[in-house]
Design goal:
mainly alpha; 105 residues; 5 helices
Length: 105
């Protein structure tokens, strides 16, 4: 184990602290494969824009009358629908351009 710590350039105390943090994450219900996501979130929370985004989300939740849990699946579905319709629109525009070219001949 000491060889592994040396390779990782960690002291025993740093390894203990890392283990303590990992246990806290697990106790909070965050599985190990999501730990990096949680660390990334913590970094975002430190950014000034995070507070503004949180306030905006709260405003949208209040206006829409739905919470985050319901809003996210809806937003994902709407984003997929928008993408699908955008692809269809581009296809129709291409057809119109082709038709215009044929008529111009």
């Amino acid at each position: 184990m000491s060889v592994e710590l040396a390779k990782a350039k960690l002291t025993v105390e740093e390894a203990r602290e890392g283990l303590r943090i990992m246990r806290l994450f697990v106790d909070m219900g965050v599985p190990p494969e999501r730990h990096a996501d949680l660390v990334g979130l913590c970094r975002k929370i430190a950014e000034p824009a995070f507070v503004e985004a949180s306030l905006e989300l709260a405003k949208i939740e209040k206006k829409a009358g739905i919470g985050y849990e319901e809003m996210v699946p809806r937003a994902r579905r709407l984003a997929q629908e928008l993408h699908s319709k955008d692809v269809k629109l581009k296809g129709l525009q291409a057809n119109l351009t082709s038709a215009d070219m044929l008529l111009a001949e």
